[in-house]
Amino acid sequence: MFAAEIYMHRFLLSSLVRTLNPNEADWFYTPVYTTCDLMPTGLPLPFKSPRIMRSAIQLISSIWPYWNRTEGADHFFIVPHDFGACFHYQEETAIERGILPMLQRATLVQTFGQRNHVCLKDGSIIIPPYAPPQKMQTHLIPEKTPRSIFVYFRGLFYDVGNDPEGGYYARGARAAVWENFKNNPLFDISTEHPTTYYEDMQRAVFCLCPLGWAPWSPRLVEAVIFGCIPVIIADDIVLPFADAIPWEEIGVFVDEKDVPNLDTILTSMPPEVILRKQRLLANPSMKQAMLFPQPAQARDAFHQVLNGLARKLPHDKSVYLKPGEKILNWTAGPVGDLKPW
């Protein structure tokens, strides 16, 4: 789900918007691959990401003049970790760390989006997490298959390993789903992840998309692709590509405090409203904007990112620094982040 930084790099290598002449460039992109630092189990290890990013910026600023002209104001970086450039999967620690100081002037392209949060700075571009287009394509079932499941969810309700006391993970929202609806026949919810997961989503009317450690998850992409109305449970979430996807019209937003009332909220929705949302979700352009296909296609997530970058042009003259002028504090942040990679 963090692979957007790899696929965005591959896309740009062959894109018509790429130039090999830096004097023609509106933007500079530095592929850093911070999410490819993995634990032996294969899970992302964000703790060294600041050192990796810092070393990359030191490299490009010492070899070429372009970073130093603006201290990154005309550069963009893909940071698809749970809390973006705060580089931690637990919110409390992410907030304490804040965005890496060296990225304060750069444009960040990230999956994390939450209003009034220290890990989302003005001007960031919110993207969907990566979900494998080819894999999902192979699991499509006939469009007219009846949607016999009312509410569907597969995933953790508690993260015992990282949150043994409960209540911190997902701010308690997932636990509330389980405690209130585990015996409700309208709710097909479980921690088990069946081989028919994708097919089941296509048989469901509503798919729960609650926050986990972060507000976003691949379920949002999967719900849109499979025409299942996303029930978004993540207060103040900022969703990707709001200019291309009418989230309020295709989804259902439920406040975290209202999770105990989920059954009432969903069963009281008029059939005509449900049908309208399903018709909108059936629009191919809606699905296309959520995917990073190989090769790229018109109006896909790659092009939505390009649209977001284009809207930020032209750069204001104020972003260009005077010779020798410095704004960023290169020694700010935790001492551990200052170690070379």
TrEMBL record:
Cell location: Golgi apparatus membrane
Keyword annotations: Glycosyltransferase, Golgi apparatus, Signal-anchor, Transferase, Transmembrane
Membrane topology: Single-pass type II membrane protein
Coarse class of the protein's main subcellular location: Golgi
Domain of life: Eukaryota
Domain (Exostosin GT47): residue spans on this chain: 1-269
Family note: Belongs to the glycosyltransferase 47 family.
PANTHER family linked to this entry: BETA-1,4-XYLOSYLTRANSFERASE IRX10L-RELATED, EXOSTOSIN HEPARAN SULFATE GLYCOSYLTRANSFERASE -RELATED
Name of the protein in its database record: Exostosin GT47 domain-containing protein
